Amino acid sequence: MSTVYDCKRPDSRETGLAAAANAVRAGGLVVLPTDTVYGIGADAFDSTAVGSLLAAKGRGRDMPVPVLVGSWSTVDGLVLSVPRQARALIEAFWPGGLSLILPQAPSLAWDLGDTRGTVNLRMPLHPVALDLLREVGPMAVSSANSTGHPPAATAEQAREQFGDAVSVYLESGPAQDAVASTIVDLTQAQPRMLRAGAVSAAEVSEVLGVEVTSE
Fold it and tell me: For site-directed labelling of 200, which of 1, 47, 78, 98 has its Cα 20 to 30 A away?
């Protein structure tokens, strides 16, 4: 049975975060609020849990799962290197609605899907998400919706789609800005915007000092 915790109440928030952390460590799935839309997440280093996440969403390995982190410094252990452009964007927009694709550290023992040696990283601007990430470490998190359905704006909307496939639902009220994060690919010499979202192309270009192209 899954459980919903109202994180707007201090007592329920503490209990819910503890339950979510235990679920993640045990290989379960959790739904958590972020600054964009609600997400469905698992331990990024538990390949079985990540597989369960993909199955719950009805997605294949060809759509790998992004990774959320709880601090800037966490990135250093997850990527091959952090280039100057990535540092500039992290300082400007993290925590916030910007995802960065970078070459992953080759030593990492994780399986996020067919990433082709890259990882999609973001630090969300939401206190509940950050508290959970700082407790359990990097999490594989995708938007809380099954394929073909709109992303959930509340934990209850997510529960209607996932039911008991998710162990813990953290409710923090309706998502205030139900816009997906902007995705910028920094794996090539020229930065590319793969998805427009919460951060505009003009804002990214201003920080980098170069025009960001889109696919």
Answer: 78
Q: Is 194 in a helix, a strand, or coil?
A: strand
Burial of 53 (0-12, 13-18, 19+ CB in 10 A): buried
pTM of the model: 0.94
CATH label of the domain that carries residue 116 = 3.90.870.10
Burial 108-121 (b: 16+ CB within 10 A, else e): bebbbbebeebbbb
- If one compares 214 and 190, the residue with the highest pLDDT of the two is 190
End-to-end CA distance of the chain: 43
Q: Check if the beta carbon of residue 69 is closer than 8 Å to that of residue 120.
A: no
Give the C-alpha separation, 114 to 62, whole Å.
5
Number of structural domains in the chain: 1
Q: Could you report the per-residue pLDDT of 138-188, keeping only the tens digit for each?
A: 999 999 999 889 889 999 999 999 999 999 999 999 987 667 899 999 999
Half-sphere exposure of 110 (CA within 13 A, CB side): 28
CA 172 to chain centre: 16
Average pLDDT value for residue range 69-95: 96
To the nearest 10 degrees (0 to 180), the angle between helices 10-25 and 127-136 is: 40
Q: What is the DSSP letter of 126?
A: -
Strand pairing of 30-32 and 39-43?
A: antiparallel
* Domain region containing 31: 3-214
